[in-house]
Design brief:
Elements (H helix, E strand, L loop, with lengths): L3 E7 L1 H6 L5 E4 L2 E4 L3 H11 L2 H4 E8 L6 H6 L20 E2 L2 E2 L4 E3 L14 H18 L4 E5 L19 E5 L16 H9 L2 E5 L4 E4 L5 E8 L9 E9 L6 H28 L5
Helix pairs in contact: 2-7
């Protein structure tokens, strides 16, 4: 049975915010911040996931012309260079191929335009068209999003070529009915506030108000639709206890290891029969 060709999409700036590939402060000591991408690369070489998938490419959407992206990647840069941090070990391989040789830029340049700019919708469509062209060139059967802060539209709407072929690994439970639900870009911080008996009423000012205390969080692998973390859940794990004294990076480390890596692994294992090459 042919393996499914997997393409991974991320934003370098989100990985940089996590201090991916670096040692971070953890309760008076340090721990290595392994990214989901690094975890997947290792799993493809050491677990049965490698019998189901081949990693064909790693796409990132960061824009070298954007001052905001430049600032977010001031320590890392837009590509690996000797003597500076990078989001995974520079010689890391998956299935015999070096990860940094699999990187492909498809910058989401439309993000530099104001939200109400009349040209923004066309620029957003152009980005999705460029992304689709790259996925087709890589012959992607399945696409994993990780920290891509872009809401997709044309690529995933009903009848689109990549409908139910793009999945997202999210650091929170996304099921509507769950009392632990955390969607959106601030899922980890939202969970940390929840463990302190607060909820954020205004994300621009971080104004909080009292809320019932929720002391657990998790992670979800779900299909991507045109909403915000609203697609059908493939697999989720509610495995992370939150200490209200956690820092954001301490909680990220815990949630990656206790919930997100297992959700990614088990979710891809469940997905494999549906996305193998030639599958309906």
């Amino acid at each position: 049975m042919p393996k499914a060709k997997l393409v991974y999409i991320l934003s370098l700036r989100n990985a940089a915010a996590d201090k991916a590939g670096q040692h971070v402060d953890y309760r008076g000591a340090t721990r290595y911040m392994k990214s989901p991408l690094e975890y997947l690369a290792e799993a493809l070489d050491s677990t049965p996931l490698g019998d189901e998938y081949t990693l064909e490419g790693i796409v990132y959407d960061d824009d070298p012309a954007s001052p905001r992206d430049q600032a977010a990647l001031a320590d890392y840069g837009f590509a690996w260079a000797p003597g500076r941090p990078w989001i995974f070990p520079p010689e890391l391989k998956a299935q015999g191929r070096r990860l940094r040789d699999l990187l492909h830029p498809v910058p989401s340049t439309y993000r530099t335009l104001p939200l109400d700019a009349p040209e923004r919708p066309a620029a957003k469509r152009a980005y999705e068209e460029a992304l689709e062209d790259k996925l087709l060139a890589l012959q992607a059967d399945v696409v994993v999003l990780d920290g891509l802060l872009v809401i997709l539209d044309a690529l995933v709407r009903p009848g689109a070529r990549f409908e139910r072929r793009i999945v997202n690994i999210h650091p929170g439970i996304t099921r509507t009915e769950s009392p632990y639900r955390r969607r959106g870009a601030h899922a980890t911080l939202d969970a940390l506030y929840g463990a302190r008996g607060l909820q954020v009423a205004d994300w621009s000012s971080l104004r909080t108000e009292p809320a019932p205390q929720v002391e657990k969080t998790g992670a979800s692998l779900h299909y991507v639709d045109t909403g915000i973390d609203s697609g059908e859940v493939i697999f989720d794990v509610l495995g992370t206890d939150i200490d209200p004294a956690d820092t954001i990076l301490e909680l990220r480390w815990n949630n990656f290891h206790r919930s997100l890596f297992p959700a990614l692994h088990q979710g891809l294992a469940l997905l494999a029969p549906h996305v193998r090459r030639g599958a309906a």
